[in-house]
């Protein structure tokens, strides 16, 4: 932008140029000493309207916001932080993105190259600290290599199994001038190693998959986040409909299948629906797509779908046979696999209709006998489940972000989200994710409803981000399911630790949330009954303004059904009218 | 059961840390590791010996293959290989024991590389079996210090499995 000679560019310019040319429109970040050269360059690019920087109030939120930005779009999330404490504050956010396979470019400032290793002011080895939690990382030692590094980073973050890529840029690299700079396209790179990210589909595998699916009488789709990331939602629906195969999703895979559909079973696992867990235990064919057999999903691994033949479709070879040996493993992007599958069935298979009818009938029966329970307390007190359920009914098209704990599980059970509109920290379970995530989603979709469902404890971990919301007037609706406890911790203490509530009570020292919101110049409300909640939500529907609503729900409500850790999925607690022989 | 992995990597900064991080973060213990340049510029080879069963080795191989700087990972435990390790061993010696030690050195075709009034340092190359045998033989003289490089291996081009021939 401001450079005098045409081809002489600084490192900072190269960075900005690559970000913009790679389609980055928003950066989340926080400045500081070592990253100042980059922010100085950013100043000009922002002024010209080429890119927008969102100033968060804590670096961790920058990573979370970029993470949610990536989840709600097909883009890469980008965040900036300075060296030392700025960089270390990102660690939780990077680990979160890594666990949930979210494409992220993380730019950290670093002390000048001549100072590296001298324990300089605000120096920390962020490259070393983040080694186990990044997909790949770079320290830029030669400014001439910066274009290649950036191009490679964008390629790596998005291709194969997505993940966070960290680029550590020393202060003097940002200032150094490079002669004859030119933009490096992604395609020019990675001739050597890209083969590892492209798995060849074997025709025989697809054939075997068709045979298995057409021969199964009790098949089940088990869908993870990979299906959302590869945009294969529509094809999945087509296949499920065509073969009448019921679908259960993980927390990451939620929103990939319309939960009102008769084939949908909702979430499975520890707090999954009873019918999904029964279906997994009883199925004879489990088609696992873009998922990794996490311990919260499988319960006792040996008894997870123990009678079923397993087909595992995943892009990451390391996930195959990590926890469960599949009978058939197909490596590749789920979308590609599904497309090949569809093409192949058109020519070969004569569908036997009604093959799964009796299976679906059984499932419908389970659905009737073991529905999700929403406690109702009439007018006296407010039930968290009712609140969340009502929210989902009133905002069917909204983006929902959640924090971690009971409210997250209730939301996962009771909300029906549109594709990619469910944003939750799944693998790492990061409290404090919800609010910055809502910021990321709202920045990406300024005209759509974004609702952050949080808990009183989680919310206080990112409460400072109210400042960000206030500054940019982001029309986010924050619903705090306030029970005065770390609800999930209390539930575990109640269930497995003999009611010894060690440090899980939060009422002491709890702020008046609505007053805090007002102090940040936001609209804050406190709600005691379902009726007042309904009328307030009706009143603010359609407005694009920030609201914080502190919902005082009943304290001792627990999240059920629940699979006791170490037990089989079919043994759930918190089910009413469980008949021992019903399964048979 | 001990396994040997041969890992070909780009010789860039941080690659060794990255490889060893995979082992530590997945809870594996490395018994020996040897790193060196190869004939190709910019490419290094890491030979790692570690205890573990087939399943864990498969999992670790997959995790290693995911690293961007790793080009190839091979489990060469059961392949026909030439294996060598270098050991420098310092043994206590006196005028009376010197000739006994020299005898062992002679038999195993190793070399004395340093000598003092009360000690001898011997250089031994060979497969891990030979190294262990010599170490055992020197024990009565009392060993002062041992340094080993860790095993390096290379596949036999003709694929003749000498271990197999020994047993047949």
Short précis:
By secondary structure, chain A is an alpha/beta fold.
Write down the Rg of chain B.
19 Å
- Helical content of chain A stands at 25-40%
Seen as an oligomer or otherwise, the chain set is: heterodimer
- State mean pLDDT of chain A (0 to 100 scale): 91
Gyration radius of chain A, in Å: 25 Å
Shape of chain A: globular
How many DSSP E strands of chain A? Answer: 22
Task: Describe what you observe in this structure.
The complex is a heterodimer of chains A (584) and B (168). Chain A has 584 residues and is of the alpha/beta class. Chain A has 3 domains: 9-196, Rossmann fold, CATH 3.40.50.970; 203-369, TPP-binding domain (Rossmann fold); 384-559, Rossmann fold, CATH 3.40.50. Chain A is built from 23 helices and 22 strands. In chain B, a hairpin with a 5-residue loop joins strand 2 and strand 3 (43-51). Chain B starts with a strand and ends with a helix. Chain B has 2 domains: 2-75, Alpha-Beta Plaits (2-Layer Sandwich); 81-153, ACT-like. Chain A, domain 2 (Alpha-Beta Plaits), CATH 3.30.70. In chain B, the strands form 2 sheets. In chain B, strands 5, 6, 7, 8 and 9 form a 5-stranded antiparallel β-sheet that branches. Chain B has a 4-stranded antiparallel β-sheet with strand order 2-3-1-4, with helices on one face. Chain B has helices at residues 15-25, 54-65, 95-107, 128-138, 162-167; strands at residues 2-10, 32-37, 43-51, 70-75, 81-92, 111-115, 119-126, 143-148, 152-155. The longest helix of chain B has 13 residues, at 95-107. Chain B has 5 helices and 9 strands.
